[in-house]
Specification:
73% of the residues lie in helices and 4% in strands. It is mainly alpha-helical. It starts with 6 loop residues before the first helix and ends with a helix.
């Protein structure tokens, strides 16, 4: 029996320190909800998780871009629905003005409505969405993923010849009404093509949006498996380390009191 070097106490103190450190780490994990409290916990996992976080944020940004592009195209189609009704009415007025029982005074009334509808279409061509022209015919490159890949969304040009020719006509006479009817029919054909193009773009953008949602979900799940703590498992570890700390403390106390038994030998 020795009293200068208490190896039992030294060993107990070392083990108690290790248990206390593990208890503190377990407590930090439970309070933060993360398995990686500091880089030393899982250096490689932290690197992978950091890249996942960045990629998930880029996916979220791309999803926002796609959603805004869908809103843009929906706004376009909302205006074109009204343009469709205007052109339909203009074609009707063109036919009515060719009625042989109508006088030029009657045709003048028809022409007033015809010109008003034409002005409405011309005005619609100047509309914009958050400062971006809706109908100048410019194709827009929409970012569709976190790597910057783009999809070119075809533009709609209400300033095209088919539209301007139709809105520039008149139905003041039977002859001009016949010409106006031909022009308006051509504008309706062009409008049908433009709306179909918008519909195709919306379908493509919706597909990208759904793809991004699924990708974000899968990436988040993969990232969670790396960095998120399993509370049930960690709670078990916490209870274990807590018991070890309490037992280590008791044993250290016992080890520190062992040299005192040497006093009995001196008696």
């Amino acid at each position: 029996m020795v009293i200068n070097t208490n190896t039992s106490a030294n060993s107990s103190a070392r083990l108690l320190t290790e248990s206390s450190n593990m208890l503190a780490k377990s407590l930090a994990r439970l309070s933060s909800g993360s398995k990686i409290v500091n880089p030393a916990d899982d250096a490689a996992g932290l690197a992978v998780s950091t890249r996942f976080d960045a990629q998930i944020n880029r996916i979220s940004a791309a999803s926002s871009n796609v959603s805004n592009a869908v809103s843009f195209s929906q706004t376009q189609d909302g205006f074109l629905k009204k343009v469709t009704k205007a052109l339909d009415r203009m074609s009707e007025l063109s036919v009515l003005s060719q009625d042989v029982t109508k006088s030029d005074a009657d045709r003048a009334l028809y022409d007033t409505e015809f010109q008003t509808l034409g002005a409405y279409i011309t005005d619609t061509a100047t509309k914009d969405f958050n400062g971006v022209s809706l109908f100048d015919g410019t194709a827009l490159d929409v970012t569709t993923d976190g790597d910057g890949t783009t999809y070119s969304m075809s533009g709609v040009d209400l300033g095209a010849a088919a539209y301007t020719t139709a809105t520039g006509g008149d139905v003041a006479t039977a002859a001009t009404a016949a010409t106006a009817l031909t022009d308006v029919k051509a504008a309706i054909t062009q409008l049908a093509t433009d709306r179909a193009t918008i519909g195709a773009s919306q379908a493509r953008l919706n597909a990208h949006s759904e793809q991004l949602s699924v990708l974000k979900e899968n990436m988040s799940a993969a990232n969670s498996r790396i960095k998120d703590v399993d509370v049930a498992e960690e709670s078990t570890q916490y209870a274990r380390y807590n018991i070890l700390v309490q037992a280590g403390t008791a044993m250290l106390s016992q080890a520190n009191s062992t040299p005192q038994s040497a006093l009995r030998l001196l008696n």
